Amino acid sequence: MSATDTFNFTLDGQPVNARPGESILQAAQRQGTVIPRLCFSDGLRADGNCRACVVEIAGERSLAPSCCRTPTPGMQVLARSARALKSQKMVVELLLADLPEQGHQFVDGDPQRPHGELSDWASQLGVVPRPALTALRRSQPAPDLSHPAMAVNLDACIQCTRCVRACRETQMNDVIGVLHRGAQAQIAFDIGDAMGASSCVACGECVQACPTGALSAKTLVGNQQVDKAVDSVCPFCGVGCLLTYKVRDNTIVAVDGRDGPANAGRLCVKGRFGFDYVHHRQRLTKPLIRKPGVPKDWQGAPQPGDWHEVFREASWDEALDVAAAGLRRLRDTHGQRALAGFGSAKGSNEEAYLFQKLVRTGFGNNNVDHCTR
């Protein structure tokens, strides 16, 4: 069978078209059939450790994890059989029973689903942990808030290892691992260091991979609800990473990477956590023009926010006219080669083209460069 050939297998009595190399879960997902999953995430290697996605395969004694099992032509799979559903519900119930009632991450702003994907699957399967199970909750370490951008709450961890795979295999950092074994196993940074003291580079890939909020942005600690999600493009450089802003009360509180040709859902530390400037009190929202008689090296303002002692607000037309007049004066006084232009990566390709055109035609020279060259 070639890499382009497809074949059919049966899932809950319905034919499903599969591609060579894809799992039962991926084939079902592509055709709109829902199978619970927790440790599986698109873009990460399938690990098969949560067993929430188990299915029944005709002729086999044991249930199989659909995220790891590849189908074969004619295979008969049952994802909604009584046996498969019983196992799926048991796994979700046991995991949810070990988590505190007060979760760390809401799904779509619904406070009744406080543990993200886990609570979402519990709702879909109609699972509510029995009191006899919740009474056996294990004690967990106190929240780790040592990192400036991320919070660690291991009481919400289900050890799906999505964060481990995201750190080790997606970002190639290998900071996150599993410490100890059995009932004592827990997610750890380096060799048990606090997250803030570890070699973490703050890419935040683990935060985006976490299905329960055990790892979350520090800006969401205490209140995980958001009002809306706004798709956008990262403004920091010319790569053009796609992202989604999580907004609450017209304030950006978190950022998730979005799948795109430049970033495949990933973000750097600036793109994921460097959004506080948007709402900073010192952010300039109008053009400023230096007041007459104030020298450029004036040091009178004790704080950066005291700009009104040096500048006055102006319209864009007035500010651009002043800038153009100043550049023209320098060119006429000192010659064409006295001017140069330095482009910003926050501009688009079209803006970069217009900028170099301004330098070459307006300044009359080729003294133009770009910060990301």
How do the helices and strands line up, and which of them pair or pack?
Blueprint: E1 7-11, E2 14-18, H1 24-30, E3 54-57, E4 64-65, E5 76-78, H2 82-97, H3 116-125, H4 131-134, E6 150-152, H5 162-170, E7 176-179, E8 186-189, H6 205-209, E9 215-217, E10 228-233, E11 242-248, E12 251-257, H7 269-273, E13 288-290, E14 311-313, H8 316-334, E15 341-343, H9 349-363, E16 368-370
Parallel strand pairs: 1-5, 15-16
Antiparallel strand pairs: 1-2, 3-4, 3-5, 6-9, 7-8, 10-11, 11-12, 13-14
Helix pairs in contact: 2-3
Question: How would you characterize the overall build of this protein?
Answer:
The chain has nine helices and 16 strands. It is of the alpha+beta class. The chain folds into three domains: 7-133, Roll (Ubiquitin-like (UB roll)), CATH 3.10.20.740; 138-279, ADC-like domains (N-terminal domain of TfIIb, Single Sheet), CATH 2.20.25; 288-370, no CATH class. Strand 1 and strand 2 form a beta hairpin. It is elongated, with a radius of gyration of 27 Å.
Question: What brief labels describe this structure?
Answer:
3-stranded antiparallel sheet; 5-stranded mixed sheet; single chain; Ubiquitin-like (UB roll); 17% strand; 16 strands; alpha+beta; 373 residues; N-terminal domain of TfIIb
